[in-house]
Amino acid sequence: MEPKNTIFLVLFLSTTILQSSSAIPNRSELDRFIVTSCQTTRYPPLCVHTLSAYATMIRHKNDQDLAQTALAISMSRARSVAIFVAKLTKQTPSFKRREYLAIKDCIEVLGNSVDRLGQSVKELGRAGHAVASEDFMWKMSNVQTWVSAALTDETTCLDGFSGRAMEGKVKRLIRLKVVHVAQVTSNALALVNHFAEKRSVKFP
Fold first, then answer.
1. Which of 7, 93, 180, 197 has its CA 20 to 30 A from that of 41?
2. Residue 49, SS3?
3. CA 55 to the chain's CA centroid
4. Do residues 192 and 145 lie in contact, with contact meaning Cβ atoms separated by under 8 Å?
5. Are 102 and 175 in contact (CB under 8 A)?
6. How many CB atoms are closer than 10 A to CB 30?
7. What CATH number is attached to the domain comprising 107?
8. Euclidean distance between the first and final Cα of the chain, in Å?
9. Segment 42-78, tens digit of pLDDT
């Protein structure tokens, strides 16, 4: 993980835990909460593996913490992949024109994905403080729209490497990393939707 990404995650997750007014449950309770929550995602094993590393920063049965942490991790990993792809272009100067253009487009759309995920993390935090149903639903709609767009950005990057003309080491390296990020983002979106559904029924 890139240093800047690590710093962001530490700051975000530290802030989350400092704002918590409840005691942190033991690890076994947190693990059960994560495993149960991850069943709502498309890639449960990946979800559990991704979030377990930050389990102690998540309050027990707090779906907002879980979704917000998942978004922060997704953003961090998307940024890492964008940096990796950018470095790849400098280390391998003999790309074919189609490869170069696909990589250039991929870097751009991954940058858009990072921006949208960053917006989503902040907006989800604001949604958690909403006192009216309309305000909560508006903010959650923004989050869902932005995360969906981020997932589309990541898929768009993969589309640029489709076809036999892009076979080889470059395609395999980039595809492997971008697929991982897309799956992490998909899981984050599922957790966002789960939080929105559960929280909305609590409003009068």
1. 7
2. helix
3. 16
4. no
5. no
6. 22
7. 1.20.140.40
8. 43
9. 999 999 999 998 887 787 678 999 999 999 999 999 9
Identify which of 71, 152, 85 has the alpha carbon closest to the alpha carbon of residue 118. Answer: 71
Instruction: Please give the Cα distance from 85 to 114 (Å, whole number).
Output: 14
Round to whole Å and give the CA distance between 129 and 157: 35
Distances (CA, A) of 82 to 70, 127, 128, 173: 18, 28, 30, 12
CB 143 within 8 A of CB 185: no
b/e sequence 110-125, b meaning 16+ C-beta within 10 Å = bebbbbbbbbbbebbb
Length of the chain: 204
Q: Is residue 14 part of a domain?
A: no
Range of the domain at 51: 27-201
Q: Environment class of residue 100 by beta-carbon count within 10 Å: exposed (0-12), middle (13-18) or buried (19+)?
A: middle
Q: Is residue 111 part of a domain?
A: yes
Per the structure, the count of domains in the chain is 1
Question: What is the C-alpha to C-alpha distance for residues 124 and 196, in angstroms, rounded to an integer?
Answer: 10
Could you tell me if residue 11 is inside a domain? no
Q: What is the sign, positive or negative, of the torsion defined by CA atoms of 197, 145, 115, 90? A: positive
Dump pLDDT digits (tens) for 95-124: 777 777 888 899 999 999 999 999 999 999
Rounded CA-CA distance 121/73 in Å is: 10
The helix (H) or strand (E) run that includes residue 42 is none
